Amino acid sequence: MKAILLLLPLILLSGMASAQYSSPPLSLLLGNNSAAASALDGYYNSSFAQNGSIVLRIGTYTQPAAISASVMLIGLSPEIDNVSCYIPDMELVLARGHEEGHLTALPSEGYPAFFCDAGWFNNPGRQYEWRCDFDGDDCVEYENRSTVQYNANVTFAFRNASESVPLSSTSIAIPPSIASLLENASGGENMTVNISGNVTFTYVINDRNFALGDCSSNYTTVTGTLPINASASFRVGGSDKFVFLARPVLREQWFRDNRFDTIVLSQCPLYLAQMRLNNGSAANITIRTFNLTTDGFGFMRMTSNLSDANGSGWSEDSSSIASPTPLESGNNSFAYAYTFNYSYSGLGENNLSLVVVDAVLESRQYNETLLSRMLSYGGSNSENGLPITGNSRPSASFDSGSLTRLEIGLGLVGLVLILAFLNFWIAR
Fold this sequence. Notes:
The protein is mainly beta. The chain contains 5 helices and 27 strands.
C-alpha cells in the first residue's frame, strides 16, 4: 500500500509540463533528488522482487509466512542529457522495499481473519483469543514485532578501479577513490554500479506459557534471508576542459582581419561562453537552455535544447571522443568539442579571453594577448602611407633606377616582317 500511495503523486508530477531554464537549475534538481531518495526508502516493486518464505514455529505448530524484497537503481544525480557530470555532491539514488507475512489467527469458518500481533494483544477489547492459542495451552501467542535488515554492498566500478560501500540508505555518496577518477571522465565512458547481498527478516514471537496459575512471556526469534541483486551502467563526465588557439596560430595577424578563433574540448556539455576584449565584455553566447523532467519515482533529470548556432560563430560536436595527448601534459579524453570564432577591430596588442561554463556550472577561462599589425612597403611607410611604427610589419627597402632606351629602325622592323611571311609561305 505504501508503494501505491507513493507512486500516485510522483506519476502526476512526471506528467506535468516543466518550465524552460536559461541556466542549469542544478540546486533545484539536487534538492528534489535528495527528497525523492528519502521517499524511496520503503518503496517495494514486485516486478523486481526476490521472494521466499519463513516458518513461524510455536511448539509443534508451524505456519509459513511469505517474505519478499526489492532493490532498484534509479539514477546518478545530477544527470544532463543522459550523462552525469561529476560534482562533489554527486550521489546514487536507489529504491528499496520489502513485504512480509505475519502470524495469522487460526482459521475458523464464519469468522474474520486477523493478525495475532502486538497491536491485537495490547487491545483491551481483543476478541477471539482462542484463535491465537496455537499450542492449546490456554495462553495466547502473538507476533511481538518483525524487523528487516539490508546486509548488502554497493560496488562502484570505473576504468580499472572499484570500491564497495554498505547499502546504508537510498542515497549513496560516490566513494572517494571513484570520485577522483570521475573528475576526469571523458563524458563518453560508463560507470557500473552493482548491489549484492541479502535481506534478513527477523520475527520475535511471544510463545506464552502457562505457569503458576498464569500465562508468562516466552520470546523466541525466527530469522530468514533473501538474496538481492541489481546492476546498472551510467554514462559519466568530468569537469576538465582543454582550450587552444586555432587562429592566429602565431598570435600575430593583419589588423584588417583580426580573429580570435578557439577550439574547446570538454568532458561535460557547455551551456555558456563569454568573449572578453581588453577586460570588457565583448560577446555572450548561450549554447543551450534547460528543461526538467521527473519520472515515476520522483527522480529529476535535466534535458537541454541547443540554441540556434547559425551565424553565431560557434558549433558543438559530440559524435566522437577526442584525446589530444600531443597537446597537453595529461592523458585526458573529451566527448564534447566546440569551436568559437570571434572577430574584432584594433591595432597593437589586445587582450582576449574566453570563459566557458558547463551544465553543472564548472567554468574555465582562457586568455591570450594577440598582436595586430599593418603591412608596410619600402621599409619606411605603412600601408596607410604614414611612417612605420611598432604596429607595422617591417618590409625591405628598394633603390630607384632608370630604364635604358633602345631604338629600333623602321628598316629592321620591315625585314623581320618579310622573314616571318617567307617562313609562313614555305611551311605551307
